[in-house]
Amino acid sequence: MVSRLIEIFEDKYLRDRIASKLPYLFQIAELESSRAGKTGMEVGSLRERIIVALLIYKFGEENVETEVPITEPEIDVYLFGYPICIKTITGVGGVKIAWTVDAQKAREFSETYVPKCDILLAQIIWNDLGNLFYIPLEVQKRIFKEMGREKYIKLPKPGTNPRGVEYSKEALLRLMRDSDTKSIKINWQRSKIDYKPYQRWVDYWKE
């Protein structure tokens, strides 16, 4: 079965809507997860929810299963019963395959890892052009097989605390540039937002 995700990338109205709205929504996610000018780790979860909300908007709540155990290393949501992984990257930094602070667990994961679901990857480059990518499972499997496990996966350096197993730089570039990968160009311009992160909670207290 061809993933229904392809429909997002073939729908011109939705493509335009994503290109115009995603920078604004991701900027709000940053504002919500920032303190004293620093963006916290929770921004990733907020961005993920924004992408999941896009899936619900497009395909309907009844077709998007969000109750995925947090211990599941790759799957973030199910669309029509099929697993989807949602990832975001700022600039051209590393993209995690799995999060772990344990070097031994990272090695064990890398030894058994095989791609198992489609990926939606948002590449955020503020004040420049980035993309929302759809990387089909078949593309991942093919590149994984061509490159081999050792070149596809980047393990954390011993003695560091990078919090996870990443795609190698070469693997990530090949995944993004593959002819079967779909993408939506996004101009990541910031808006002027008068945003008060505590206001909605204050409003609840007032009710």
List its salient traits.
three-stranded antiparallel beta sheet; alpha+beta; 8 helices; 207 residues; ECO RV Endonuclease, Chain A; six-stranded mixed beta sheet
Topology:
Layout: H1 6-10, H2 12-32, E1 34-35, E2 38-39, H3 43-59, E3 64-65, E4 77-79, E5 82-90, E6 96-99, H4 103-112, E7 118-124, E8 129-135, H5 137-147, H6 149-152, E9 153-154, E10 164-167, H7 169-177, E11 182-187, H8 199-206
Explain what the structure shows:
The protein has 207 residues and is an alpha+beta fold. It has one domain (6-191): ECO RV Endonuclease, Chain A (3-Layer(aba) Sandwich). The protein contains eight helices and eleven strands. Helix 2 runs antiparallel to helix 3 (43-59). The longest helix has 21 residues, at 12-32.
Summarize the structure.
The chain has helices spanning 6-10, 12-32, 43-59, 103-112, 137-147, 149-152, 169-177, 199-206, and strands spanning 34-35, 38-39, 64-65, 77-79, 82-90, 96-99, 118-124, 129-135, 153-154, 164-167, 182-187.
Separation of the first and last Cα atoms: 48 Å
Major sheet: arrangement of strands: 3-4-5-7-8-11
CATH fold label: ECO RV Endonuclease, Chain A
Mean pLDDT value = 89
Major beta sheet, specifics?
6 strands, mixed
Supply the CATH class. Alpha Beta
